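Q: I'm writing up a methods section and want to include an example of the input and output format. Could you take the sequence below and give the corresponding predicted structure tokens, formatted cleanly so I can copy it straight into the document?
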Amino acid sequence: MSAEPTATSEKTQAAAPARAARQRPVTRYWQAVGAIAWKDLRAEIRSRELINSMVLFTLMTVMVFSLALELDSDARQNVVAGVLWVTVVFAGMLGFSRSLAAEHDRGSLDALLLAPIDRSALFFGKMIGNLLFVLVISFVLMLLLTVMFNISLIEPLLVVMLLLGSVGFTTIGTLIASMSVHARARETLLPILLLPVSLPLLISAVRGSAAILNEMPSEDWLPWIQLLAVADVIFLAAAYSLFGFIVEE
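A: Here is the clean output for your methods example:
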């Protein structure tokens, strides 16, 4: 009679490590993603090199556009979406080129690649860090454009458009930055590779933002939001699949 409980307990003990092995990778994966993103944020909080350069670039760009585009209110309403996304794109590229380059120059990128984690966790950690920087710059830019152009950009739909566009642009930007990090002219190579790939995403973001700012009906801006959401999913899936092969090369 005592053999059956013993056999059951042995099966339970044998199944426990299997359940733990199935649950542990998910926990470790997102812990690794969070640790990498937090490492980048903490390093930036200490140095403030990247965020200061991006904020300064954003401020100078807005001032140049505001002085160059001395237009009436209707004309400014039409061009402010383009100014918004041009500044986000170039400020974002400034951050992408330095996120992995700093790791590469210090030699810590090889250590991260040797860590016992999935390679995609390294990508998503870097991408989340870059996304937070781009979003900070984007919201600062919205406030600056509101003041300089005398047009209110604090719109919920525009925030959604900005979030979707930033996710897709940051995803493909981080992926291409990992491709160009080993190149000698990586600062020049990054925009050459990034801009053609992200062009459909940027066209959708500019068109949708302009439609929202001009208070057009939903059929004029809703397709652009849907297209951005689809592009984000495609870019995230492509980055998840390709990042491991890219860093190996």
